[in-house]
Amino acid sequence: MANLDHAGLGSPGPAAYAGSGTPVHVAFGPRFAVVPVFFRFIGTFLILVAAAMWGLPGSTVEADLVLIKLGASLFFLFCGVALVMFHHAENVPEVCFDPIRRELRVLVKSGDGQPHVVLRRGYDSLGRAQFRGNRVELYDFDGRLLIGLRVTDPARRTALESQLRQLVNICN
After folding, report:
1. Cα–Cα distance for residue pair 101/47, rounded to 1 Å
2. What's the rounded Cα separation, in Å, for the pair 125 and 138?
3. What is the Cα–Cα distance from 118 to 9, expressed in whole angstroms?
4. DSSP secondary structure string for all residues of 57-113
5. Three-state secondary structure call for residue 3
6. pLDDT score recorded for residue 50
7. Is the pTM of this model over 0.70?
8. Roughly what angle, to the nearest 10 degrees, separates helices 34-55 and 63-85?
């Protein structure tokens, strides 16, 4: 990366990108791999509890308790479905690192399945990038963390590092 001026804006035009022009896509995911499994387990348990409230022996069907039982079972059902779907692959936003436009974009799929850009940030507006193990962290000029991504694929990590090396300050 070129030397930065005192305002942190950098040189007016970075050098042309010399690597592959293929954008790198990285999906957001949980910080720990056990989190989605834990949420799915608890969600499944809540769905089963919602059904068991009506079917297990010993559940009384008195008129004044039916509304309370209905409300509790619907609450458990909706919370269980939400926990099961929380880390579903279709709901995960995706980050696209585009070397041609020199920007990163955060894409979210809408109800019709088409991706929509919810955040667009140029490489020249990034302060630094840091590669730690299987994580990539992008920081602003003032040191604030912008995005932390888990990149488990070594080929994708290498492509992303070679793409950012020419345009963003990389720290270890």
Report:
1. 46
2. 11
3. 24
4. TT----HHHHHHHHHHHHHHHHHHHHHHHTT-GGG--EEEEETTTTEEEEEEE-TTS
5. coil
6. 92
7. no
8. 160
